[in-house]
Specification:
With 328 residues, the chain is of the alpha/beta class. It is built from 12 helices and 10 strands. The strands form 2 sheets. Strands 3-4-5-6-7-8-9-10 form an 8-stranded parallel sheet. The longest helix has 18 residues. The N terminus is likely disordered.
Length: 328
């Protein structure tokens, strides 16, 4: 991979901030912005959140750089791997509206079929590549093979690759040595590690304690809150940004609440759908920087993104939310 000395976190963040502010002015009259204008708030007690103008998505800072990152990102597993013309058209809408509603991080992997190819092409076609915080993964054994896989991802997704992650501990120590060198040489802005199973938490905790991770990614939800016990406090103590996957428990959350009315107390934290209920539960934890629900459906995208606006639950409300879901 070629050296990318101009892609420092500060330089990239500054350019994106300027575009974000300019885009916000142009989007002020869109219906969804008007609807959200009165509900957007900022939790001043959370030192990792930035003040935001009304009707802008909440952001939290990346501990190792201070760069602001939008709370709701976009996953791609099972959503961006397609060759259907109809689905590709929906994905173009998803990506344009994701950025228009304040989204930044798109998380993908070379193991997600042709998702990287589709994301790279659509980002260029829709003119939003410079606004995206691009996160992908290395998932292969061997130093040379890992470098080649990451070079391929860069060709597919374009520069900069903001975050490169070791996926599911595959050859973790070998790939970590490569990632540290890449970051030092300016080839990638941030480095991290991911998993998606609660059974992996003990191993993930070990890596978090001994490696200088910028980001860690793991599963966390109102149905599976285990990360709240050890991983989230550890991330806060170590200054590691957190990406949450599987906030809907692979769809099991929606199966559980199907046909059930949204509880009235949800309005207290500006929640208007079950999807927002699940996402706001996750985002209530100050250690969480971004949650990445995957979708190829534009309407689902709009619903998910609104979880990043308005109030968030506190600890007492999170407990109430867990009790509500447990009874179904």
């Amino acid at each position: 991979m070629n050296r990318i000395s101009s892609q420092s976190p500060q330089n990239v963040a500054r350019r994106r901030l300027m575009k974000y502010v300019a885009a916000g002015a142009g989007l002020a009259l869109l219906p969804w912005r008007r609807a959200l204008a009165d509900s957007a708030t900022h939790d001043t007690a959370n030192s990792r959140e930035h003040e935001a103008a009304p009707a802008r998505m909440r952001v939290r800072t990346i501990p190792t750089s201070g760069e602001a990152l939008a709370l709701v990102g976009l996953g791609s597993s099972g959503a961006f791997s397609t060759r259907s013309d109809a689905t590709l058209a929906d994905l173009r809408t998803v990506m344009k509206e994701f950025v228009a509603m304040g989204g930044q991080m798109i998380d993908t992997s070379p193991t997600y079929g042709n998702a990287e190819i589709n994301i790279g092409r659509i980002a260029i076609q829709t003119g939003v590549r410079d606004e995206l915080f691009m996160a992908t993964k290395v998932h292969i054994h061997g130093e040379r093979a890992g470098i080649e896989q990451m070079e391929q991802s860069e060709k597919r997704l374009g520069k900069p690759i903001d975050l490169m992650q070791i996926h599911n501990f595959i050859d973790a120590d070998t790939q970590w040595a490569t990632l540290e060198k890449m970051k030092a040489e300016g080839q990638v802005r941030y480095i991290g590690m991911t998993h998606y199973l609660t059974s992996a938490f003990e191993e993930l905790e070990r890596h978090m304690k001994v490696k200088k991770l910028d980001f860690v990614q793991f599963n966390y939800s109102v149905m599976t809150p285990d990360a709240q016990q050890r991983l989230l406090p550890l991330a806060a103590d170590r200054g590691i940004a957190v990406i949450v996957n599987r906030a809907f428990d692979d769809g099991r959350f929606f199966a559980r609440v199907k046909g059930k009315p949204l509880p009235g107390y949800a309005a207290e934290f500006d929640c208007h759908s079950w999807a927002q209920f699940a996402l706001k539960y996750v985002l209530a934890d100050a250690a969480v920087n971004t949650v990445i629900p995957a979708t190829s459906n534009p309407e689902h995208l709009r619903d998910n993104m609104r979880a990043g606006y308005g109030a968030l639950p506190d600890r007492a409300m999170q407990k109430r939310m867990r009790a509500t879901i447990a009874q179904y």
